[in-house]
UniProtKB/TrEMBL annotation, chains A, B:
Biological classification of the source: Bacteria, Bacillati, Actinomycetota, Actinomycetes, Kitasatosporales
Name of this chain's protein: TetR family transcriptional regulator
InterPro entries membership: Homeodomain-like_sf, HTH-type_TetR-like_transc_reg, HTH_TetR
Pfam entry (one): TetR_N
The organism of origin for this protein: Streptomyces varsoviensis
PANTHER family in the cross-refs: HTH-TYPE TRANSCRIPTIONAL REGULATOR RUTR (PTHR30055), MYCOFACTOCIN BIOSYNTHESIS TRANSCRIPTIONAL REGULATOR MFTR-RELATED (PTHR30055:SF238)
Length: 205, 205
DNA sequence: CATAACCTGATACTCAGTGTCAGTCGCGAC
DNA sequence: GTCGCGACTGACACTGAGTATCAGGTTATG
């Protein structure tokens, strides 16, 4: 899944990166993302500013690098699930894979998500990452699309909509302190697409 | 629609802003967004760097301020269209209003959109603006939502999906040089939601 | 051991964005 | 008219992100 480091150098580098991120994250939560500078982080972690910057290209990445594998997780899940399902079902399941991947330490993820949506810069960067994932997802969808879907617009819209669902659902989940069930939340979100869409008359549920 | 300036000062300020943006935009198209600095822009426009920065808080805004009214345009269109329509139809119509608002000078809009998706920073900022529009749209949807929709998740998902449609459609439209019909493109995009979603068997169209 | 690759800290640099300050202009009140 | 007030401007200084370079130390490998 996450490319296993081969050399000892890779291992070390990975470990240092994790430690730097850990220290930095505490600072962010304590003082606020914008208030903390790279100089602060470097001092807190006991390395030089140069070194810190070598591990994380931007301040946003210090927080958001944990989301990097999500795009591949979703794409892989789509591949594993091409059995007789329609796009929406496959996307829903793939999103559940992504959610499962992210939720290891519930408390930690909740804290991250809180920090993210308190911080416009983090929101923006995370949305940017999502957009980077989309082409890969679109490609997987189109592999099995009916020939009638000549234009890539349909697949793009569905992929984009699904990614929005993931984000909205995670926001809701984190607002509940990680109590609610992600599967149920995903179902609730995808219900926005499935019904015949006439909302005026209350649908008998 | 766009709040009419009342005082002479407002008029002047607005005109200066437009002129600065015009000069700057040429520079961006010529040299590339990232290559141009505020100092360059100020010199090209014949004002000081300070003054230029007083008119535009960020370099991104110099390009993207034209999109600012779109959120209100969509919200207003939703209000004017609450007659007996389901959410998706209302959203589709509202998006067409937004598109109509944006397409005054076809060539200019195409140029802007090209510049935007050549420039990650502009993409990110535009997506940020979209997210700012969403709450207002959600509120309008929920005003007429059936009581069965207790959770705001449904409305959020639909608003987010619709905004993604707008962006995808504009991308497609701009790729065609502004030739294709935006109404048709919107229909094609919204088709991603309507069919029973089973994509394996080619739907007889 | 030797060498090549890598990591680190130091330093210098560009540029976005913020804030301050003094001078200027337009405009209404007196 | 002129006085004062508010807004606009340019000049300057400053913080902080991100890039680039360099010398010296460390580690893997032959």
């Amino acid at each position: 899944m996450s490319a296993a480091p081969v050399g000892t150098r890779e291992i070390g580098r990975h470990a240092v990166r994790a430690e730097l991120a850990r220290v930095a994250f505490n600072r962010f939560c304590l003082t606020g993302f914008n208030q903390v500078t790279f100089a602060d982080l470097a001092e807190a972690a006991g390395v030089s500013r140069s070194t810190f910057l070598r591990y994380f290209g931007t301040k946003e990445d210090v927080v958001l690098f944990v989301f990097d594998p999500v795009g591949d997780v979703i794409a892989d899940a789509l591949d594993a699930d091409r059995v007789d399902e329609d796009d929406w079902s496959r996307l829903r399941n793939a999103l559940e894979s992504a959610a499962t991947f992210l939720v290891r330490d519930v408390q930690h993820l909740v804290t991250i998500l809180d920090l993210v949506d308190q911080t416009p810069a983090l929101c923006a960067r995370l949305r940017e990452k999502q957009t980077e994932w989309r082409p890969k997802i679109v490609a997987r969808l189109r592999e099995t699309a009916s020939p009638a879907d000549g234009s890539p617009v349909i697949a793009n819209v569905r992929a984009a909509a699904a990614l929005e669902c993931l984000w909205i659902v995670l926001g809701q989940w984190s607002a509940s302190g990680g109590q609610e069930d992600l599967g149920n939340l995903l179902d609730a979100a995808f219900a926005a697409f499935s019904p015949p869409a006439r909302q005026q008359t209350a649908a008998p549920l």
